[in-house]
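User: Sequence in, structure out. Go.
Assistant: Echoing your sequence, followed by the structure tokens.
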Amino acid sequence: MEDNKINIQWYPGHMTKAKRMMQEDIKLIDIVIELLDARIPLSSKNPDIDELAKNKYRLVLLNKADLADSLVTDSWEKYFKDKGFFVLCLDSRKNTGMKVITDKVMEACKEKIEKDKKRGIIGRPIRAMVVGIPNVGKSTFINSYSKKAVAKVGNKPGVTKGKQWIRIDKSIELLDTPGILWPKFEDEKTGLMLGFIGSINDDILTKSEIAVHLIDFLKNNYCNTLSGRYNIDIEKNSYEILTDIALQRKCIKKGNEPDIDKSANILLEDFRSGKLGRISLETP
């Protein structure tokens, strides 16, 4: 990636408001369920969440696992387990792996449930909060997980307007809040990873810039995906490859010029939809 240096300076101002909301909300819950993109678990993880949720039980969901390299995902699962997290891999769009989430939440909160029993409190639902940066599938997950009973749970002390308690079943309530924790990155690589999966607006990075860097990565790690998908020579430099994709897909502008923006869009959509195959962008 050194050949094509780009400058990424971005951190939304309303992040402070979202953090403040989460600090208030987290007092009400027992467990934090954190969604990460299985293709970039570190880059899609907001480091503020570890500080905000340090006294809570933690469940990490490696979402979109169907798009990631399964061997690499296995390594990430071990990585987070070694750090003390409970971990599950899933694809919330297809409801894959959803059935075991409740079991895993109950396993993670076993100590709290036992303490409640000793105090004579039996059957109190576990309260969970789902967090995740944009585009990791948070909304899809909440809809998939709660599809049988999305309803507000009765008035509760300390629950302010704007928060919604969703009853999953008799054992779990999910706190759905309007606050969003945005990505936080201080280096170019993390910004690019977020650009690859579509978490960063095109106003920050143009698609052709992102596409060239993605080609750099694929040439070094998954070279057969490019030649196999587009029937092109991958010995050329990344910009020339992007040009060849434009010619192969007949993306031509006026004056018979290859339309680089269109070919960049094709490449990124093929990657994000899994048409290039199962690809992981980070390893532990």
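User: And one key feature?
Assistant: The first strand starts at residue 31 and ends at 37.
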